[in-house]
Batch of 2 targets.
Target 1
Amino acid sequence: MPKRVRISLASKCQLMFGAAVVLIITAALTVVALRMQDLVQRGPNQRAQDLAQWWLADEIKFGGELNQIQHDAVSLPPGVSKAVALIPKDRFDYQAESNPFFSQAVELFQTRPASWELFLPDQDAQGETFYRYARAIRKSDLDRVQGGLAGGFSPNVGASALTDPLEMILLIHLRDEDAPRQRTQNIIYLVTAGLVSGLLAIATFWFITTRIILSPVRLLHGYASKVSQGDLNIRSDINTGDEFQNLSDMFNTMLENLKNNQDQLTSINKSLDLKLGELAESNVALYEANKIKGEFLANVSHELRTPLNSIIGFAEVLGEALADMNNPKDEKRRRYATNIITSSRRLLDLINDLLDLAKIEAGRMELRVGPVSVADTLEGLLNLIKPLAEKSGITIRQKNQPNLPTVHTDAGKLQQILFNFIANAVKFTPPKGTVTVQSQLVPANDNNKPTHIRISVHDTGPGIPDEDQQRIFDKFVQLDPGVTKEHGGTGLGLTISQELADLLQGDITLDSIPGQGATFHLTIPLTLADPTTPLMPQLTSSSNPRNPR
């Protein structure tokens, strides 16, 4: 599209006002010129009518040869000359042959009986203007004059004129030297008046638009330009006593408000800069503390695992030694040894979780990618956890889509995630309940080639309320203290699972209706996009798990 030409307000006003003035003056002077020309034209016509009326009433010659009579006694204006001729009807054809004007008059008066005169301007061989006038004299006119009736040669334009025969035609040749001069003068006066009035009107409009309208607008435009450059200390000074002054006052009020708001924002920005500096220092300190905490957890967890493994080993040896003894004291010792083993294993699980969490936070968690059979992995995990489920009367079902392809991922991380899902499902499913593990390709039943696999673990437990479905992925969060106290737990399983799923470039979602159980879904790619450079996010206390559905 072509770029539109931008015209200033001053140019628009001047162009529109100038065009309006020219059009108005032109229209007004055109009407006046036409009227004056008509008046100039009517002067010779009226004089021809008066001359014809006087001549016919004073001296009419009938019959005989064509007489052309000069009348010097007629009172006419200076510069006006005339020639009068009375043509009887028996001379019409002869006169018409040599005078086109007379022929036109005869045709008019005979075809239109109600017509009684014809007046036309003409020019002679020298180009000077003169006027031809023809007056119809009918039978009724002659009868009134010969009978001495009043009214003389008044034109008969009534209904009787249609049957009134034409007897004579009076021709008048009138030369008026003032008519061209009057027309010329009228044109000069009109042009002069138009130029003078147009210039005065344009000057008046220019003064009004420039001094009264455009001057305050230019001032406001200048103030606005300075404000756009950042100068908020300028103030408008327009004292016109009209809407422009009101606009100037509102402009000043707006600038005052902007200045106050800018001062407030400057003060707030200074305060924010100070707080930002303090926050940056706090972040650095937190980062150092978090780094030290991670290193401390990694080191302490590693150092605690060795004595714990020793305690578990010695407790198992002691339990095996006391297994064949039937002394009441030995029974008590066996119970103590079993408690030592159980508590040590729980502590070892907690230490392992803390160690994994510390590795993830430190970005030291490594991926060992290889081919993994999802069906075999699920079968092994279910065989491992079935004894615990059978103690509570919980049924575990496995539904795998046939011919699942091999997944290239980290087998250990995948097993850890799925074990957490299945263990939680068994933990929170009441006796006689059901845990269902299902795996299928994504998208299912589609012509497109699948690129992901989804593993779902569904339980028939109490479910998870909507307000807690986001919170369960936070650290050390346990929704049911009673169940957790009975089965144990650290509140880190889902947190670690979420982070491990991110490492595997997967996604964890949750579907749960309170009272109808919960379903955890793990969706991972069949092949990692870039297994040599795995994603290792930094886990914080406010990790951002996927929004559960």
Target 2
Amino acid sequence: MTKYIFVTGGVLSSLGKGITAASVGTLLKHSGKKVGMLKIDPYINVDPGTMSPLEHGEVFVTKDGAETDLDIGNYERFLDTSYLKSSNFTTGQVYSSVIERERAGGYLGQTIQVIPHIVGEIVNRIKQAGKGHDILVVELGGTVGDIEGLPFMEAIRQMKHDDEVAGTFFIHVTLIPYIKAAGELKSKPTQHSVQELRRIGITPQMIIARSENGLPKTFKKKLAMSCDVSQESVVEALDAASIYDVPMSFLRQNILKPIAKELELGELEPDMEEWDNLVKKIVQPKGRVVVGFVGKYLALKESYKSLTEALIHAGAHLDTRVEICWIDSEDIEEKGAEALLSDCDAVLVAGGFGSRGVEGKIKAIEYARVNKVPYLGICLGMQLTLVEFARNVLNLEGANSVEFDENTPHPMIYLIDNFLDQSGGMQLRTHESPMGGTLRLGEYPCDTKEGSIIREAYNGEKTIYERHRHRYEANPAYRKQLEEAGMIVTGESNGLIETVEIEGHPWFLGVQFHPEFTSRLQTPNPSILAFVKAAINLP
């Protein structure tokens, strides 16, 4: 039977529950345990797919095509594992399932209530996610005391007494504020947060104390006593030079000892040598390279979380600090590409939705193409490479994507009416279709062309597999014109254009997929690794 570790948060949000959960999972995995990860989000949205990146951060896409919370990305990057849609669920999904079952008569006329029906559905989903694993690490979104989180708290409380559960361990991530005027660390917010948990019926067995300052032994002792945990179960979580150093910090504090003791896991000795070496190269690399990152959601950098992390992974393996020069594509429209990109070693144009900032991205692409600067265009970044090439090389006036101009005389990017989904079934998508239901989502194969940049990046693999999240496709009607002028299609998926390159350019690649979704610290994505190599002129 599966054992469960529950990670809750107190005092305030954004304390790093996701990194904590991922770090604990990483240490357990490197100890030889089969570890599953689950993120529970209390919001009522069915998934974050239609939520603004500026509000919620990046939408992470799983291998099986689920639009999930960005913490699933942290789990994959830390544990070097592909998780599925069962690794994330929301209040919206829980209530939808219960209501659908009630409408179908599945409850035999019972009055549907939060307890037992909603809570029962939550427990069932947690157990389903735990199947096949020695340990499931469960992160509860939100903060203790949030009204929407109460059914989830009740669910994990009940699991302490469930005969189908082999053991439970509760970790509480909390803030230890430092009052500068008094020169003191304060434990009271944590005490109140733990009291709220205990009122619900949950007694945390470990406190992860987020603090800007180290905790003195006397303070740790006081915290342990007031929160009713052992002193060895108070773990410092100080600001780290890299999030990937957090597992090493936890390991130095023997975090696994109380977990192993409570869950009867035996002696755990994780092999973290390779991990530690990569972290050292992130913190103190030998080289440096500057990538001009052209995007439109720069007000919240977490909109591009997977992509910025993928650049860090590539840099770690090349012993190089990848410095990101953030460039808002709307600024390029005002100031020009050269003014903002001339100091960059390479140009990356990221994905996005909507027409805002598109012309700036096109100018950035033109700059990279004309000046022979290494270039990587991802999703919309690839689509706009076709638009830029059509306008400036093929001289097709008014060339555009139908996403931005439905009446364009040259639809380089169009909305394909029928496309094959992951299971091979035919799907229909139109301009009137719901935004959340007509995206090409998840992992698809891509057949690469011999001698291409993309095939070389993937070590000669003919067929590669990458994840998608988009509605529009490159229009094959213009393929012949493009290729005759020097833009070559080097990757295809079921007849759809997946990757393009430019003849005579030292390194220019546009990809329809999102390579960042499969990049991990220990196994960086090949196309992003090759891009960074090109930026630092490595063979």
